[in-house]
Amino acid sequence: MSLLVVGSIALDSIFTPFGETADALGGSAVYFSVAGSLLHPVQVVGVVGSDYPRAELERLAPRGIDWSGVEQAAGESFRWKGKYSYDLQSRETLETRLGVFADFQPKLPEAFRQAEFLFLGNIDPELQLDVLSQVHRPKLVVCDTMNYWIGSKKAPLLDLLSRVDLLMVNDSEARELSGDWNIHRAGRWILAHGPSRVVIKQGEHGALLIEATRTFYVPAFPLETVFDPTGAGDAFAGGFMAYLARTGSITEDNIRRAMVYGAAMGSYAVEQFGIRRLEGITLADVETRVRAFQDLTQVSLAQAPV
Ligand code: AMP
Asked: Measured from the CB, is residue 234 less than 6 Å from ligand 1?
């Protein structure tokens, strides 16, 4: 079943306590597709400027990433600059330059309009709405957002929220969007505004899947080496959506399994700078880590003494 993503295609400058990179390949759509393509082909919609190293994107095409929906426009590419704290738990955005994304008007190729699984990656909510309106009959629509858009585009974001099946955000975004510091109440607030499910990512504390009557939790993989948390959320989304597209099922059980694939992909993303680690892993590596999650979380309570 086809999988489509719209999101930023960026040049990232990242500062962590372990080093820094400048103008590295990044953006929500890039992390999503590099991770997701390990499980399922990904179609990408977006725009890059005349300064973008398009050959770098094309180099990734054999993984199963279809970049034909990425326009190259005259002007500057999207650029993001961020700096992480010593414990990598928080980050400060130093600069966001929208560049060619400011005037982008997506026009989806006909083949892309048939997409069954649609991920509206972190980008202007008006662009997310535009892409959503062009896809004929998606089976599952999931969207992400960021403090930048919650602050500047709240109205279209709320409109979008009422039209999607699942919102996938991190804990600080859920708090900011709902105005509630409690993550479970924030999840409830989001459900009341449209989606039937919300995934709240909590970095090294794992991720929650909140539904009307149930909550599911997947921990973060216990890593001893973390270099760069950038893109972990998008890699999570890539693993989550590509697993669903690969298996073609959106039952509750399958969505829980997709959470584990998401967590596995997110854990690989942070092990090296940028997309480097995700580029180097195989499907067998992903399966090994998914099995490790099973061992990490399984417990038999039937024989517990009372
Ligand atoms: P994550 O670490 O999962 O939140 O994703 C980080 C990626 O999001 C980076 O590669 C950035 O290029 C991209 N990004 C940062 N700010 C924005 C924004 N306001 N809109 C879209 N993408 C962004």
From this structure: yes
